[in-house]
Amino acid sequence: MEVFKKLTLALSAAVLAIAMPLAAEAKTFYWVSHGGPADPVWTYFLAGAKQWATDTGNTVNTSFHNGDVASQQEAVRAAIAAKADGIVTTSPDPGSLIEIAKEANAAKIPIINFNTPDPKASFDAYVGGDNVTFGKHWAQYLVDKGLIKKGDHVWMPVEIPGATYGVQEEEGIKSVLEPLGITYEVTEATLDQAEAINRMVDYLTTNKGKITAIIGLGDLVTGSIKRVFDQVGVKPGEIPVVGWGNSLDTTQEVLTGYVNAGQWQDPQATSYVALSLANMAASGIPPGFNVITGALYEKDTAQVYDDILSGKQK
Fold first, then answer.
1. Alpha carbons 59 and 233: distance in angstroms, whole number
2. Which of 10, 183, 274, 312 could form a disulfide with 114 if both were Cys (CB 3.0 to 4.6 A apart)?
3. C-alpha 128: how far from its chain's center?
4. pTM given for the model
5. In angstroms, rounded to a whole number, what is the distance separating the alpha carbons of residues 34 and 71?
6. % helix, strand, coil for the chain, step of 5
7. SS3 state at 43
C-alpha cells in the first residue's frame, strides 16, 4: 500500500510538472474598440475575440469606448502599463493613437490595428478593410449601375462624424462624386440605434424629395434602413442604398430589396486574426504584412453572409 501511495505521489508530481509550464504560457491580451456594445456589428467583432480566447486558452480583456477618443487612449495606455502581452485596437480618430503606438513599441508590446486603419501610427500590422477603397467602390457602384448622375444628391448618415472610418470612406466617395458634379451630405446618427432611427426618419422626411441615393457609412445606420423606410413610407428599391453589411439587419435588407449592396468585412475573423498576429508577435515572430478583408455583396450572394452571421455556416 505504501508503495502504491509513493507511486501515486510521483505520478501527481509528474503531471504537475508537465501542466505548470503550460499554465505559465497563458498570455494576456487587450482588445480595444471605438465602437459601442449596442451596435450590432460589434457583437460579431467581440464574438471573434471571445472565440480566440476559448481556442487558445489566453486571456482577452475587452473594452468599448463609444467614440470617446480620450477614453480609448487611456485604455490602451492602461494595457501598456499592465505589461500586456499584446494589444489589438481600432483607430478612433486619424492620428489619435500615433504617440500611444510609439509607447507600445518602446515597451516592446505588440500593437495590432484592426477595423479602422491609421497608416501614420506605428502599429505592427493592420487587419481589416481599406475604407478609402470601400468608399470609392460604393460611389462607383451607384454610378456604374446608373443610379446617380450629375446634379444628383447623396445622403450619407454616419454614427460618429469625424471618426476614422467615416472620414476615410468620405475621402473615397468624394473622389468619385465631386468630379461628376454630384453633391452629398453627411449627417450624425449616433451609436444608439433608437436615436439613430429617429434622426434618420426626421432627415428623410424633410429631405426625401432631393435625395437620389443613400450611402450608409456605418453598420448601424445601414442596418436601420428598413425601419427608417417603413416609417417614412419609402418602398424597397425606391431610393438606392449601398453601405456596410456586417449585420443580420443588412443581409436581410439586401435579400428583401431595401439595400442594393452591402460591404462585408469578416467581423469575427478580423478580431480572431488580429489577436493571432499579436500572439505571434509576442512569441518573437513579427508580422511583416497587413491582412486586408472585404467583399461587396448583392442579393444573389447575401444569403452566404446571412448564414455566417446567424451561425448556420460551420
1. 48
2. 274
3. 7
4. 0.78
5. 9
6. 50, 15, 35
7. helix
